[in-house]
Design a protein that fits this description.
Elements (H helix, E strand, L loop, with lengths): L1 E7 L4 H4 L13 H15 L6 E4 L3 H14 L5 E2 L16 H8 L13 H18 L4 E6 L1 H11 L14 E7 L2 E9 L5 H10 L2
Length: 204
């Protein structure tokens, strides 16, 4: 059995301001670093992991590096395949700004946003590569909300019709005889209640 643990990166200023990030390279803020330290502390007390793979975007890399340091490991691989879906022209804008610029139906326009199917394909490719390289191992993949969500929907469509992943949540997938099972979804028990409320109220 190979285990994949998907961790969403810690929160950023753009998350809190509800600004579309996509592939923009935005760092964690201090709350995001606190969240990363909290998930790292949790993981250090649970079953060990064999490898850590991170998106190449800095908010994921920072999260992965904080986790790796706590676990006494190094980040095994920086993987562009698990970077966030590109937001095209909407990156750097709020919903209000998008409506002002393109109207309330802006989602129907071709604004260069990466299709969810393309993101899911990247996610599956990264997972298949991890299965080949780390058979029977436990692998953490530090990535992004939309990328993780579209990948989950692609792998387990009957279970996941929609997803809503919190910052530094962990979702665990197990591959047994080429079949996937999700044994933990969007778990943030490591976050203090105040931080969870802040994320829930201000997350993008």
């Amino acid at each position: 059995m190979t285990t994949i643990g998907f961790v969403r990166h810690g929160i950023t200023d753009w998350n809190m301001q509800r600004i579309a990030q996509g592939s923009s390279d935005i760092p964690l803020n201090e709350t995001g670093r606190e969240q990363a330290r909290a998930i790292a502390e949790r993981l250090a007390q649970e079953e060990p992991w064999d490898a850590i793979i991170s998106s190449d975007l800095i908010r994921a890399r920072e999260t992965a590096e904080i986790i790796a340091e706590k676990l006494g490991m190094s980040v095994s691989r920086i993987e562009p395949l698990i970077r966030e879906l590109s937001g095209g022209q909407i990156e750097g804008s709020t919903e209000e700004e998008r409506i002002q610029k393109w109207g309330v139906d802006w989602r129907t326009l071709d604004l260069g946003m990466e299709k969810k199917e393309e993101g899911a394909k990247r996610g599956r490719e990264a997972i298949e590569a991890a299965l080949a390289k780390y058979p029977g191992k436990r692998v953490l993949m530090v990535s992004h909300g939309a990328l993780i969500g579209t990948t989950l929907k692609s792998l387990l469509p009957e279970r996941f019709t929609k997803t809503n992943l919190h910052n530094t949540s962990i979702t665990i997938l197990e591959n047994i005889e080429s079949k996937w099972e999700c044994t933990l979804y969007n778990c943030t028990k490591h976050l203090p209640e105040m931080v969870q409320e802040e994320v829930a109220g201000k997350r993008k």
